[in-house]
Amino acid sequence: MQKSILFVFELEAGMIIAEDVFSPTGQLLAPAHTRLDNASIKKLRLYNITTVAVIDDNNEVRKIDGIEPTYCERVQQSADFQAFKAEYTQNLEDFHDAINDIVKHNAPVDTNALLEETGSLLEATENSFYLFDMLHNMREFDDVTFAHCLNVALIANMMGKWLKFPEEDIKVLTLCGLLHDIGKLTTPEHILMKPGKLTDGEYDIIKNHVKDGYQYLKKQDIDPRIKEACLFHHERCDGTGYPYGFTSKKIPAFAKIISIADVYDAMTAKRVYRGPICPFTVVKFLESEGYSKYDPHYLLPFLENVVATYINTTVRLNNGQTGDVVLLNKLSPSKPLLKCGHTFIDLYEHPELKIEAII
């Protein structure tokens, strides 16, 4: 019997499992020789199973020009990703229209419609592993406002779940993400899209977006935490943020959470002046500089959970080696344990090594 190791997103109904599949806690999820159906595949996804051995008498491996595709290429080839991409693109168009109506025509914020559209994307991903997998491979959008707001909403939703918030609070947190940058719609495009460093005057104009956004929302019949997140998401716990230079005690909790989702998405997204930054580089940045600027109560769970979503992902080190992320290091999330060929490398014990790209 020949077998192939497939990512869960490559599984199809009718395939036969070659080996027992266990949950991370040792629970048997599917015994060997189980014929998969849609329900059993969904169960594996819900338990964050990443790879499964299946019987493959043909032993075929999809390749591009004779080269086995990378993890990211396999994600992008998958039916799950194509479905997510189509849903995301449609969602982005609808969101664009809704926000423009609020800004240009003073239309009321339809929170139910916004949540319904965002919910369709969350349902398509089923858990945080798939959400971050999808978002990491959806970096082709140059839109610096609408795609960013949608991404921040999805990330904030996951953060609410990681923090075990009540469902109603998670909905509000999602809306905070969707509307936090609404003020940028009136920021001149030549400043938003400037490829070089902003002047002091241009940066002052950018900073106005938090107050402009609050003006659009302050008379809307929505949860006040959404308005607070819009106004305060650039405040920092050490007092170095704007518009008021508040320190931690004065910054509302939801604004603190949105600030983390905001900076993570902004740094990992492509911009006109640079390409996307590797998520592990962003995690390292937040480890080294973030605990004074962001509330550790929210930042630490975020870093641990976001790195956990990249377990079993193939990465490249700064020395050229490649390997798979196999274990999270809670002392330093940016320094996980890697499996490189037949050897293991604990990045925590090798400060000279760092992950420079997900491949």
Short description:
With 359 residues, the protein is of the alpha+beta class. The protein has helices at 38-46, 71-77, 79-105, 111-125, 128-136, 146-162, 167-179, 189-192, 200-207, 209-217, 224-232, 253-268, 279-293, 296-308; strands spanning 3-7, 21-22, 28-30, 51-55, 314-317, 322-327, 337-340, 343-346, 355-358.
Q: How many individual helices?
A: 14
Strand content: 5-15%
Helix content: 40-55%
Cα-based radius of gyration, to the nearest Å: 21 Å
Strand order of the largest sheet: 8-7-6-5-9
Q: Which stretches are low in confidence, meaning pLDDT under 50 for 5 or more residues running? A: 59-65
Distance between the termini: 30 Å
Can you summarize the main beta sheet? Answer: 5 strands, antiparallel
Average pLDDT works out at 87
Describe what this molecule looks like in 3D.
The protein has 359 residues and is an alpha+beta fold. The protein is 48% helix and 10% strand. It has helices spanning 38-46, 71-77, 79-105, 111-125, 128-136, 146-162, 167-179, 189-192, 200-207, 209-217, 224-232, 253-268, 279-293, 296-308; strands spanning 3-7, 21-22, 28-30, 51-55, 314-317, 322-327, 337-340, 343-346, 355-358. A 5-stranded antiparallel sheet has the order 8-7-6-5-9. Strand 5 (314-317) and strand 6 form a beta hairpin. Helix 3 packs antiparallel against helix 4 (111-125) and helix 5 (128-136) runs antiparallel to helix 6 (146-162).
